[in-house]
Description:
The protein is mostly helical. It contains 15 helices and 8 strands. The chain has helices at residues 3-42, 45-78, 81-115, 122-151, 169-173, 176-210, 235-273, 275-281, 316-322, 332-343, 367-394, 404-412, 415-430, 463-499, 501-509, and strands at residues 156-158, 164-166, 215-216, 222-223, 291-296, 308-313, 435-437, 451-452.
Amino acid sequence: MDVLDIARWQFGITTVYHFLMVPLTLGLGLMVAIMQTRWVRTGDEKFLRMTKFWGKIYLINFIVGVATGLVQEFQFGMAWSEYSRFVGDVFGAPLAMEGLLAFFVESTFLGIWIFGWGRLRKGLHLTALWCAVIGSWISAFFIIVANSWMQHPVGVEMGADGRPVMTDIWAVLTNSTALAAYTHTILGALVVAGMFLIGIAWYHLWRRRHDGIDTVSETGHVVVGESDAAPGRDRTDHGVWIWSLRLGAVVAILGFMGTVVSGDIQGKLMYEQQPMKMAAAEAACHTGSSFSVLSLGDPGSTDCSDVVTLIEIPGVLGFLGTGEWGADMPGIRDLEPQYVDQYGKTIPDDALYGAHAGAEVNYVPVMWVTYWGFRLMIGLGGIVAFGAVVALWLTRKGTVPRSPWIMRLALLGIVAPFAANIAGWIFTEIGRQPFVVAPNPDPSGIDGVFMFTAAAVSPGVTAGEMLFSVITLTLVYGVMLVIEMYLMVKYIRGGVAAAMPELTASAHSGGSGDDPDGDDKRDDVLAFAY
Length: 530
């Protein structure tokens, strides 16, 4: 196998896996901070329980996310050393800021929050969580700044050694691509967290009905009950889940509406900065303004030879690309000769490119991936928003239907925004090919700064070594996935009592639960963490 192909698979596997954790951490962190803020302001115990339950899930996801994220940065040196050498002067700044500033703030204050339960004043403890959440959001910003520079290089000039040298850090930090992508990513993360809350909260409300704790009146409104069989399944417990569900639904709907707006902005930027990517995403073989609703062709196709458009809407593509209805957008057949004129017909005959030196360049990314990735992202996002609206409607009387199938559908709905986020990232990265650093036809960019992916891979690594690392990382990630799923399922099924040992202790002692802070656990600094 080709070293480059294996390196691409390695990057894809590790990045997609890591990105399963990122949006949930970004979105759920904000949710937990809002819950704790409500508890501090109102003293209502249901918000305390919400904070502790969702906070524990947040911590499990955060820890696995950190472990998988570390590989991403090591991978630049292991598999992509030529790429690291090329972009090092630019990447160094945002990645250093991410590690030394944002991640430091995030992890430090998260530690203070974990160990601060019952030890810090409520306001100070809450501040620690907000600092951790803000730190994670800033961390995401610097990562996206680095990635967006690969999509749209700005703030640099070419050095004498053929490498870009950063001349304007502010231009890099305010890259239009980065600002649009960051907004889109954060809003997508909120949709993920919203659907996560809906699915889990629905499951617990359904269990309360299934176990006969909650019933409904003749008018269909919930009659909240209590169970003496298990600690924590009282009236407050019902409030925990119904509030969680409805909060998740509102956030998911607002997040989706925001992704529509930010996605439209991104689409217009892509048509300016990477016209081939958007043309491939639309299977737009010829210049025109029609939007493809359904096109078919060879799944492995990287050209337009067998693409057939079955359904299209006239004028829509022009609006998506420029904001002007009916405006003509350049198609693949017109863009290809422009790319050949500007960047060459073949990969340079240089030892840096190894076996790919002198090979003909195909500037059209794999269309079936970009085309269906783009539609999967949008389609699943729409399904999520519809599901959130339905959830709000069905729970308007205070509980969920008894149907187990609807409950299973709600749990399955958790997967949809994750899949939409991953589809969006795959579309973004595959659509940039054959470049690892995309060139700038846009006048606002820096002309001549680009790098073919074929030149980015580490020259001293053999196919066997690369394959060994792929298999090893995949196995390690598989084990981590099993561990995370086990912990998630364990605590989710356990409900609030699994995250609050004080509830169990209170029930066994016959106490009244007057110690909601868990102050009786002061000597056990990890009481909240495990």
